[in-house]
Structures are given as C-alpha cells and as structure tokens.
Write a structure and sequence with these properties.
8-stranded mixed beta sheet, single chain, 16 strands, alpha/beta, 9 helices, about 25% helix, two-stranded antiparallel sheet, Alkaline Phosphatase, subunit A
C-alpha cells in the first residue's frame, strides 16, 4: 500500500478514508481546517445567556452551562448581528434564512431570494479536495407552505447554494452516512462497509505503529457503532417532535427509517458529522437542530409541559414557561457540547480535530419571545488550525464596537480557510480581536 498523505481502505468499489495515522504520514502536511454550524431556532432566554472571565475560570450563565467543560476551547461572541435581519418586517422568516449570508430575504411569495451563504462559498473553494463538497443536515423536513404569505422554505434552510436555491437538507442519518462510506453520492450499502474493507485493513495493520493500531481499531469500531445505532433507531415505536406525513418512507429503501426519538436523531447526525470530518469526506457541514417556527416536541425533557418548541419560546415571559425555555436552550447547547467533545478526543498528529476546526453554535435570534435580531447568541469553538485564540468572551456590545456585523465574523472564518473576499453580505471589514 502506498502511504501517501491520503490513506484509504478499499473494497468492493468503495474507498473508506482512514483517520490521521502519524506513522503512515511522516512527511504529511498539516490537517485541513474544517467548518461546521450547529443551529437551533427561536433564540434564547436572555437573562440566562451570559459569560464573563476567561479560560478555565470563565463563568457561564445557565443557558451556556453545558459548555463549562470546554471553556478553554471556545469563544463566546456577544453583539453580532445582520443588518438585513434587523430591517426585515418579517419577525421570523426575514431573519432566519439569511443567518449565514446577511442577505435580504424576499418577502414576495412569488420570488425566493436570499443570498449565497458563506458555507457554500467555502464549499466552492474546498469542495474539489473532498468526495463531498459540503453537507447540509437537519432533523425536521423542509416546509413548503406559506406563513403570513411568505414561503416556509426560508424557515427550513440556513445553507444556500445560490440566492434562490437552498442546499439539499438531509434528515435521514442513514443517507448521510451512505454518502460518507459509499462513493459520495449516497450509494446504498448492502452490508457493513467494514466487511468490504476487512482484507485491506489486515494488510495495513503490520505497517503502522502500536499507537496507530489502537487508533485504527477505535475508528473502525466507531463506524460499526453508528451502523448499529442507525438500525436500532429505525425500529423504535415512539415518536417525539414533528410528525411526518407518512409513518414509513413511500419508496423502497428498507431498514432506513427516521429515528423516532429527537435526542437519538440529533446524536446520530452529530456522530455522522464527526465521522465526516474524521474521514475527510467533507470539510463543510451545517446542522439545523430545528426549523424556524419549529413544532418540535420537547416533552422528552423532564419538567417540560405544553412542549412544542414554538410555544415554549414565545411565552410572554411567564415564569414557568421561561424555566422550560431555559431547558430547551440547555438541551441544544448540550448537543453542541457533545459535538465539541467528540472532536476534541480525536487526535490527528498531535492536535485534535477540534484544534483544526471552526465550529459555530447558535441561533438567528437573541430574545426569541421578542424576535430580537439586534444580536445573535453565538459560540465559536476550535482553534482553526492554530489561528484562533480560545477561552475568551468577546463582547462587541460592551466595547461599543461599531463593527459587530456577523458577516465580519464570516469574512474572518473564510480567511482562515483560504478564501479571501473583499466584501461579504453587509460588510467589508474583518472581526476585531478574533
């Protein structure tokens, strides 16, 4: 086997990219920088979303509590906003689809128009280097109805490949998984991919170090674990969250049903995202944990009643409702924390995948009840290949900074991934202090 920087296991016409193996990559270049956005809808409970201090002594409000173990790996960003969202007369749909672009959302029901999101610009830049240019994932399906005369497609997509076309959002974990371990187009797996590449694995093992053998075994086992969980999730009887129009897919794709539990569904998607980065099948990912105006049911959280997400987040500041709203915020941040933790534990040549990633977690609104778009609740994790100092609270409101556009952040992220633009969205300035 030729031990180039790109290591593969091959079998039955399928190429499975290996994790970073130091002993097989003596003269390898630095690992690539990846980007992912993990989005939740309808904002936060503002009184619980705060941070102060730095590093391991950073203090986090209750809404950010799940990030406590990762204080030294994150930056809390306060005050960033999109001008077009603030100006929009649509309190939801005009302030959501443009989260990653800063574009103006057309409110004409006959015209779908936003702007190309920056993750898709990155995909155009880096996509030729990976089997899958980017992946847009979600939990709830796209909605095509109108809400107050405006298309609900705006509520279903944060990733836009062009101003008029959202990226195809995959909500089936099995199909997302197939794209990674198949040929990049979603080829159906007739049996475990591990069975197909077993012979090549055996030939590789004598040629790598003891530490790399352990790493390879863990990697292969993680793939088998996801396969088993996907099969198990499709067999459960209960259903939480949105209800599809069909109990079963109406096409012939056996044993690949949607998970019937919201937490299981989210964790499966996050594990697929980890695998995507670990295999270097794609470097650009987005995950929508819920759509805007979400009807997801949070009754699975202890103490949460009247459990539709939209109702919990539009509560008129009633004390009991605010407490339940906080629990949904904490649940969403615990999912982001899980993603950060998984990537932090995967080594690739003395650095973790988290060290070589830029992960954005947050929402398009701040105070969901008030539809506040004057700032967004955002957490940035990872060091971007050593280009980002972490463990800080960057408060652009407190400093009175006149440059607090979210698109300044996006310009800065694109710079670190090799795409330099003069202008993006509503600004031509980079974000200070990042």
């Amino acid at each position: 086997m030729n031990h180039s920087r790109r290591q593969f296991l091959r079998g039955a016409g399928v190429a499975l990219t290996l994790p970073w193996l130091e002993s097989a990559s003596k003269a390898a270049a630095k690992p690539p920088v990846r980007f992912a956005c993990v989005y939740f809808s309808n904002g936060v409970e503002p009184i619980h979303w705060w941070a102060k201090g730095a590093g391991g002594s950073m203090q986090l409000g209750p809404g950010l509590e799940p990030m406590l173990p990762h204080r030294e790996d994150i930056n809390i960003l306060r005050g960033l906003y999109n001008q077009s969202a603030v100006k929009s007369s649509s309190p939801h749909l005009g302030r959501m689809a443009n989260m990653l672009s800063g574009g103006t959302v057309s409110l004409d029901p006959a015209v779908i128009q936003v702007a190309t999101s920056f993750d898709q610009l990155l995909a155009q830049k880096t996509g030729s280097q990976t089997a899958v240019p980017s992946m847009a994932l979600g939990i709830e399906p796209n909605e095509l109805r109108l809400e107050d005369g405006v298309s609900m497609i705006y509520a279903s997509a944060i990733s836009w490949v062009s101003p008029a076309k959202p990226a195809t959002k995959e909500i089936y974990p099995a199909r997302a998984f197939d794209r990674l371990v198949g040929d990049g187009t979603g080829r159906k797996l007739d049996k475990s991919i591990l069975d197909e590449v077993l012979g090549d694995t055996k030939s590789l093992q004598p040629k790598i170090s003891r530490n790399d053998k352990v790493k390879l075994d863990e990697y292969l086992e993680s793939i088998r674990d996801i396969e088993k969980r996907i099969e198990r999730a499709g067999k459960e009887e209960r259903l939480e969250g949105w209800r599809p129009s069909l109990d079963k897919p109406n096409i012939d794709r056996p044993a690949e049903k949607l998970p019937q539990s919201v937490p299981d569904h989210m964790k499966l998607m996050l594990d697929v995202m980890v695998l995507a980065f670990q295999m270097d099948k794609t470097r650009i990912l987005t995950l929508m944990m819920n759509n805007d105006l979400s009807q997801m049911n949070f009754g699975f959280l202890p103490g949460v009643k009247g459990a539709l997400h939209l109702d919990l987040t539009h509560n008129g500041k009633a004390a009991e409702a605010e407490a339940m709203y906080l629990k949904t915020n904490q649940f969403h941040m615990s999912q982001f924390a899980y993603f950060v933790d998984r990537l932090k534990k995967i080594d690739e040549g003395g650095q973790s995948i988290l060290d070589n990633s830029i992960l954005l977690g947050g929402s398009n609104l701040f105070d969901g009840d008030a539809h506040g778009a004057d700032q967004m609740p955002l957490v940035l994790a990872g060091k971007g290949g050593g280009t980002i100092k972490t463990g800080r609270v960057l408060d652009y409101l407190e400093k009175g900074d006149d440059n607090r556009r979210a698109c300044s952040l996006y310009l800065s992220v694109m710079d670190r991934m090799g795409l330099q633009l003069d202008r993006f969205g509503d600004t031509d300035r980079r974000l200070a202090e990042l």
